[in-house]
Specification:
Length: 119
């Protein structure tokens, strides 16, 4: 595969990775137990695939991977580690955010507070 193809694959995997981690967070907040684990497994697989693409690009030269190695992959790894730790240590109920019910008070800064129309 050409270097341009690898860069395009990396960008595609970056988009899929962000979507998968966001989907896992939304599923956890909604309390969907089995879906959380499936989407998290998919997010981990896409993350590892992206790391593999970056390793192949590193063989083509530092020019292609400098920002990925220094910034993007460590940030992605930290995010994945925190998300995995919360899911394994605390489980899905800990990630659940109460929102949309009149008797619940969302935590400060909760997006659900604004999206559900409650005060």
């Amino acid at each position: 595969m050409s270097t341009i193809g690898l860069i395009a694959a990396d960008l595609t995997l970056a988009l899929l990775c962000a979507a998968a981690w966001l989907g896992a967070a939304i599923s956890a907040a909604a309390g969907r137990g089995r879906a959380v684990w499936l989407i998290t497994a998919a997010a981990v697989a896409v993350t590892l695939a992206r790391a593999g693409i970056v390793a192949v690009l590193a063989g083509r030269g530092w020019w292609f991977v400098s920002e990925k190695v220094v910034f993007a992959l460590p940030l992605l790894g930290l995010t994945a580690a925190v998300a995995g730790w919360v899911l394994v240590r605390c489980g899905v109920p800990a990630a659940r955010v109460p929102c949309g019910r009149p008797d619940s008070v969302p935590p400060p800064g909760c997006f659900c507070h604004f999206s559900s129309g409650t005060r």
